[in-house]
């Protein structure tokens, strides 16, 4: 499968939100869990306008994945990295991560921080991140997520 990267368009906010929900649901979470995550997984026009949301398009122009990266002090915080389930295992995630690292460096970050879904830890470890602790979920009260860091 051939992919290309570009910055997200404001008009894609709803499509990216839907992609995030499909990607998260891929891990078998129930409907109640997914509804609790909906607000956190919603990509807004304002987020896209901020300029650090990049999409991965498949050859036919379909959205295959995206990331949202924001600089906080010297850490490029990963708010989202999602790959549409049909594109998983096809190289979209690796391509997105390489661009994410490039953007993080351009932002002046010294490291990348991720509050990872437990099912995504293997992906982030494959990209060079390490678990350094825990962080509270932004969606589920009392749920803790693996906190991961990758030095640049």
SSE ordering: EHHHEEEHEHEE
Oligomer: single chain
CATH homologous superfamily heading: Gcn5-related N-acetyltransferase (GNAT)
Predict the CATH topology: Aminopeptidase
Strand order of the largest sheet: 1-2-3-4-5-7-6
- Shape, principal axes of CA atoms: globular
Unreliable sequence segments: none
The name of the CATH architecture is 3-Layer(aba) Sandwich
Q: What average pLDDT do the residues reach?
A: 96
Largest sheet: 7 strands, mixed
The structural domain count equals 1
Radius of gyration (CA) equals: 14 Å
CATH class: Alpha Beta
Helicity level, as a percent range? 25-40%
Q: Counting H and I runs of at least 4 residues, what is the number of helices?
A: 5
Strand content: 25-35%
Distance between the termini: 29 Å
Topology:
Elements: E1 3-7, H1 13-25, H2 31-41, H3 45-49, E2 53-58, E3 63-72, E4 75-83, H4 92-106, E5 111-115, H5 121-126, E6 130-136, E7 144-151
Structure report:
With 152 residues, the chain is of the alpha+beta class. The chain has a single domain (3-151), classed as 3-Layer(aba) Sandwich (Aminopeptidase). Helix content is 33%, strand content 33%. The chain is built from 5 helices and 7 strands. The protein has helices spanning 13-25, 31-41, 45-49, 92-106, 121-126; strands at residues 3-7, 53-58, 63-72, 75-83, 111-115, 130-136, 144-151. Strand 4 (75-83), helix 4 and strand 5 (111-115) form a beta-alpha-beta unit.
């Amino acid at each position: 499968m051939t992919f290309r990267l570009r910055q997200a368009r404001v008009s894609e906010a709803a499509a990216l939100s839907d992609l995030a929900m499909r990607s998260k649901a891929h891990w078998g979470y129930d409907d109640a869990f997914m509804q609790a995550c909906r607000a956190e997984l919603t990509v807004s026009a304002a987020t896209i306008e901020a300029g650090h949301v990049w999409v991965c398009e498949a050859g036919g122009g379909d959205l295959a994945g995206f990331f949202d990266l924001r600089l906080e002090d010297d850490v490029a915080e990963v708010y989202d990295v999602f790959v549409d389930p049909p594109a998983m295992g096809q190289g979209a995630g690796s391509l997105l991560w390489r661009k994410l690292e490039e953007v993080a460096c351009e932002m002046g970050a010294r490291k990348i921080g991720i509050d990872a879904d437990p099912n995504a830890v293997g992906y982030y470890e494959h990209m060079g991140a390490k678990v350094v602790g825990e962080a509270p979920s932004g969606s589920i009260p009392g749920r803790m997520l693996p906190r991961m860091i990758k030095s640049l």
